[in-house]
Amino acid sequence: MDITIHTSVLPHEDPEASLAFYRDVLGFEVRNDVGQGNMRWITVGPAGQPDTGILLAPPATDPGITDAERTAIAEMMAKGTYGWILLAASDLDQVFDRVQATDTEVVQEPTLQPYGIRDCAFRDPAGNLIRIQQR
Known about the structure:
Pfam families: Glyoxalase (PF00903). It comes from Nocardiopsis tropica. This is VOC family protein. The protein has helices at about 15-25, 65-80, 90-100; strands spanning about 5-10, 30-35, 40-45, 55, 85-90, 105-110, 120-125, 130-135. With about 140 residues, it is α/β, with parallel strands linked by helices. The strands form 2 sheets. A 4-stranded mixed β-sheet has the order 1-4-3-2, covered by helices on one side. β7 (about 120-125) and β8 (about 130-135) form a beta hairpin. The longest helix is centred in the middle third of the chain and has 13 residues, at about 65-80.
C-alpha cells in the first residue's frame, strides 16, 4: 500500500491569530482559507512540502456534536489539552529562538529527552500543544 499523511486537523478559535502564528512565526504557507468570521477553515503547510498540511478548523462544528460535547471541547481547549501535533526541524534552536521572540507560551525549552529525542514545546493561540523535535 502507498499511504501518506496528507492533512492533520487542529482547532482554532481566532482564525487571524492562528493564521499569524502558523504563517508569520512558523513560516508555513497558506494553502486555503474558506469561510468568514470565526467560521474559517485554513489549511497551512511547510514550504516545499505541498502534500503535507494542517487544517485549522473551528472546533465542534459537526452537527452531530451535542451541547455537552461542545462544552467539553471548549473546556479542553482552554486547558490546552484538546489538540496537539508533533513537528520536526533541522535547526531546533533557530526555530525555538524565533518562536520565543513572540508572545507565544513556551511549555518546554529545547531538552534532550530520556528516550533520545531533543525537542521543545509551546502552545499556539488556540492552546494546542506544538512539540518540535530536532531532525
